[in-house]
């Protein structure tokens, strides 16, 4: 904080200390250096600072929340929260050294310097940082089987396979690993149920964040419902249920819709983007429209094969089932430089599918 004060040039030659009468260098409120120092303190800090640590998760209580932090950063934070400076102080420097005594007690050697009214001040302190045990809010809630949200993983019109459940569930671990740790982002309970998988989560925002990731990666729909489970201080306490419904089809699957063959190209909020097989035509379809779609050839039933011969309109390939030669019409987006095709067995014949063959396919 910067403090405006009158310099010595603004005082008369006859100025003197209003306490002792000394006419040497005076402060802005007309005190000599000796009298000024008797009445002014640069800094104050408690001799002992008490902090709380959860013995279960090793988190520390910090400004009403619980977080994990190393000893140096924690000592720096405690100094910032407890050090009091004169409001007129300028050019303040704070330095400290941490001495670890035992698991519950540290000693902080603190040095503070700064200027007040052009007088240099310097303070030194020894502060004991003492740690007591206290169970944090997240651990208390975990032990009490607390949860704020339920996430239900389902699929449209069918049971989710074990592989699908594993893929869906893995995205939650990826989300938690890729974000800043939040003590309320915990799983209270999870397990298989009829048709899918249910999870009880410690945070509503955790459930919503995960639902957004699921729809972005796998498509599908999300439905939210809230249930009142109690009252606290006159405010309703609610529990959120997030029901995620995965489509019965995946990106790359060939489906039949309105008597035409389409490939699932990508996902959007209101439904998939689909690509026509016969010629270039991409369009959006709603989830309601896709209820009428029937899977003709899933991505898992498609194969990458070598092109043995080709001309301008067709290519010869070896079929993966019986290793016989077959001629397939080239897709509309054929790249003559490619030596492979993606094919699927559709309506009793082998069909070359649009979409570039890349390293991921191979």
TrEMBL record:
GO terms for cellular component: cytoplasm. GO terms for molecular function: ribosomal large subunit binding. It holds the Pfam family NMD3. Residues 17-244 form the Nmd3 N-terminal domain. It comes from the Archaea. This is Nonsense-mediated mRNA decay protein 3 (NMD3).
């Amino acid at each position: 904080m910067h403090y405006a004060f009158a310099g010595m040039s603004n005082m008369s030659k006859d100025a003197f200390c209003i306490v002792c009468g000394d006419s040497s260098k005076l402060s802005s409120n007309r005190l000599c250096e000796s009298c000024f120092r008797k009445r002014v303190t640069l800094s104050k800090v408690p001799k002992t600072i008490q902090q709380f640590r959860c013995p279960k998760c090793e988190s520390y209580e910090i400004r009403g929340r619980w977080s994990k932090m190393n000893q140096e950063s924690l000592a720096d934070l405690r100094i910032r929260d407890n050090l009091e400076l004169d409001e007129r102080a300028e050019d303040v420097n704070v330095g400290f050294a941490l001495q670890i005594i035992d698991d519950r007690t540290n000693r902080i050697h603190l040095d503070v310097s700064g200027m007040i009214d052009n007088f240099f001040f310097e303070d030194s302190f020894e502060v004991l940082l003492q740690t007591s045990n206290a169970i944090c809010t997240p651990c208390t809630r975990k032990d009490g089987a607390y949860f704020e949200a339920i996430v239900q993983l389902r699929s449209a019109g069918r049971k989710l396979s074990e592989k699908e459940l594993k893929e869906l569930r893995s995205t939650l671990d990826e989300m938690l690993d890729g974000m800043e740790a939040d003590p309320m982002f915990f799983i209270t309970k999870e397990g298989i149920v009829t048709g899918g998988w249910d999870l009880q989560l410690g945070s509503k925002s955790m459930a919503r964040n995960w639902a957004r990731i699921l729809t972005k990666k796998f498509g599908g729909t999300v439905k939210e419902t809230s249930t009142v489970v109690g009252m606290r201080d006159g405010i309703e306490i609610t529990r959120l249920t997030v029901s995620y419904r995965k489509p019965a089809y995946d990106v790359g699957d060939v489906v039949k819709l309105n008597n035409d063959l389409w490939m699932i190209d990508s996902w959007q909020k209101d439904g998939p983007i689909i690509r026509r097989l016969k010629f270039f035509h991409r369009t959006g379809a709603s989830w309601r429209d896709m209820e009428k779609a029937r899977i003709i050839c899933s991505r898992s039933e498609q194969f990458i094969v070598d092109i043995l011969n080709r001309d301008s309109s067709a290519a010869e390939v070896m079929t993966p089932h019986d290793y016989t030669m077959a001629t397939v019409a080239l897709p509309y987006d054929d790249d003559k430089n490619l030596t492979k095709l993606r094919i699927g067995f559709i309506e009793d014949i082998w069909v070359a599918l649009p979409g570039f063959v890349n390293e991921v396919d191979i």
